[in-house]
Amino acid sequence: VQLVESGGGLVQPGGSLRLSCAVSGFGFGYALVGWFRRTPGKEREGVACINTGGGRTYYADSVKGRFTISRDNAKSTVVLQMNSLKPEDTGVYYCAIFTSWPEGATDYRGQGTQVTVSS
Asked: Are the CB atoms for 44 and 25 separated by under 8 Å?
């Protein structure tokens, strides 16, 4: 199983970033795939997750209304669109296979991508 992330970077408060996760070696159409982050304030926090079969989505309260997760089953890809970013969103974001939401991130995860929100 391989998860490869792209996106991330430095953005000013109020800005947007888009993270993408390409999944291979796994039954993509029957999985919970999502993102968790490590921030200075929290060791690990589930950010968003999507059921790739039915499309149901899950979000942390801290990102509801600002982040949107979507999937492209044909490309085995999950995308996290992050808008209205805040400095407290700064951290390392990991794409992962989940067994449950929000605490069920497995060891099938990407290498992590840095998101920095700062003026």
From this structure: no
